[in-house]
Design brief:
Elements: H1 4-18, E1 25-28, E2 43-49, E3 52-57, E4 61-66, E5 72-77, E6 90-95, E7 99-104, E8 108-113, H2 118-121, H3 135-143, H4 150-155, H5 165-175, H6 189-203, E9 239-243, E10 250-254
Antiparallel strand pairs: 1-6, 2-3, 3-4, 4-8, 5-7, 6-7, 9-10
Length: 260
């Protein structure tokens, strides 16, 4: 699933292509919104909220999309014509005289009044890449359920918005914390959430993630995707497992020696 930095970068690209321009095409390829037509209206802005994308228009409507596991947005010149490659995967096309934004395999595609955006993003915790990032509030929310494993609490978007399994693994390694440690026993939650903030901020304007400072393929992570390999710090074999309620399990990678 694309993480908060990828969604932030996607929002920036959508904003650059669409904001301040009048839509000349609006093609919703989801049954519920198939008759919605936004042509003739300007896009005022495109923003991210955690892993959600909000494209606001001048007629008081917002297009809300979520990439889920496989979604993506691609920006193409308007004169490139309708998308043909993987056209069956297209869920939405928004275009103006210069550009067209094509949404593929979007997990959520819906339209709602801009005044009611809180209905879809109001449950989210502080946004790690938002202008109002509030580390203290994120810590407060994480602390509310002291017995919950920190690996589950960090992925709960109601606590803080934008972290996925890649950042979770790297944050916990960098702070020496086992994913199964209860949130209430983590000595400095503030340092942990700020580590996440710094990581997402450092990666938001480039393709891919890196926590090691080395962008070469195979060298970007400390533990994520390295199960069975030696820890870069201590040489212990990296472990892989699953964590979460039944049916909602997510991958975990950790070093059993460095993370206690």
């Amino acid at each position: 699933m694309p993480e908060g930095d990828v969604v932030w970068y996607t929002a920036q690209r959508l904003h650059e292509a669409l904001a301040g321009r009048v839509l000349t095409r609006s093609d919703f390829r989801v049954p519920r919104y198939a008759t919605v037509d936004l042509t003739g209206h300007p896009v005022t802005e495109a923003v991210s909220r955690g892993k959600h994308l909000l494209i606001r228009t001048g007629n008081g409507l917002t297009v809300h999309t979520h990439l889920k596991m496989e979604g993506s947005w691609r920006i193409r010149p308007a004169d490139a014509g309708p998308p043909r490659q993987n056209a069956h995967q297209v869920r939405l096309v928004l275009a103006n005289a210069q550009w067209q934004a094509v949404g593929y395999l979007l997990g959520i595609t819906e339209v709602l009044p801009t005044a009611r955006e809180q209905q879809v993003v109001g449950h989210l915790g502080p946004d790690l890449l938002g202008p109002g990032w509030d580390a203290a509030e994120a810590v407060r929310r994480l602390s509310e359920n002291k017995d919950r494993p920190i690996g589950e609490a960090l992925l709960d978007q109601r606590n803080l918005a934008g972290i996925g399994t890649w950042y979770l693994a790297e944050m916990l390694f960098m702070r020496g914390i086992d994913p199964w440690r209860p949130a209430g026993s983590v000595e400095d939650l503030g340092a942990l959430v700020e580590a996440g903030h710094r990581l997402l901020d450092a990666n938001k304007a480039r393709a891919g993630h890196a926590s090691t400072g080395d962008l070469r393929p195979g060298n970007q992570s400390w533990v994520y995707g390295r199960a069975g390999k030696r820890c870069r710090r201590c040489g212990t074999v990296i472990k892989r497992g699953e964590q979460g309620p039944p049916g909602q399990e997510r991958l975990r990678f950790w070093c059993p020696n460095c993370q206690r």
